[in-house]
Amino acid sequence: MLSVADIVLLIFRILLTNSHRYSFIPWNLFLAWASFALTGILVRSVHHARWLSWRNLGLSILWLAFLPNTFYVLTDFVHVKPTAEISQLYDIVMISLLVFTGFILGFANLFMVHRELLKRLSVTASYAVIEAVILVCSFAIYVGRDLRWNSWDVVANPSGVLVNVSSSIDPLGNPRSFNVTFLFFLLISLIYSAFWIATHPSRNNY
Q: Exposure of 197 by Cβ count < 10 A (0-12 exposed, 13-18 middle, 19+ buried)?
């Protein structure tokens, strides 16, 4: 519903202004939904084979490569600027729909994987794994926004991504990488913690 509403707002904006300023919205929604689809495939797969099997390890890596797209959409607020095309509030609502959709899908992804981890690990260990995943996502947001790499590049040009990213992991020489990663890690962790606590999940339920 949120995705459709966002696309409708985008189409109306294009028809009204003849501007394609926000043409990235459908692509970002597609990437967020692709991550959600991969989660479903991974969850079904770990029911039939060990998580450490080659198939499930490969699926886990692919899932982790696409998961940051669900949270990355928050950075699209940088595109919202006053223009003479349409009300800025219209653009804020349109991007907010994109962000809400992405975050809902992202937290649903984490929650489904978290439940599977609870079947295999202790409560503390499973939560630690999820926090590690959130940390990876947070750094990936920096990689996407500042270094301009995306999930497809992990498959298409892994060596280029590795070289560029490894040179950015330096809190002293490149403090922005640390700052952006920390801020997103804090934001995503806090919201997910609130969501997790609110649902009162129990290891015995899974």
A: exposed
User: What is the rounded average pLDDT of the residues 159-186?
Assistant: 72
pTM: 0.85
Is residue 101 within a helix (H) or strand (E), and if so which, with residue range? helix 88-118
The number of CA neighbours under 13 Å toward the Cβ of 205 is: 8
Average pLDDT of the segment spanning 62-90: 92
Sign of the CA dihedral with 200 first, then 46, 151, and 91 last: negative
Range of the domain at 7: 2-205
DSSP 120: T
- Other C-beta atoms closer than 10 Å to the C-beta of 199 total 9
Number of domains in the chain: 1
Contacts by 178-184, CB closer than 8 A, 24 or more apart: 180/138, 180/141, 180/142, 180/145, 180/146, 181/135, 181/138, 181/139, 181/141, 181/142, 182/138, 183/138, 184/71, 184/74, 184/137, 184/138, 184/141, 184/142
Is residue 85 classed exposed, middle or buried when 0-12, 13-18 and 19+ CB atoms within 10 A define those classes?
middle
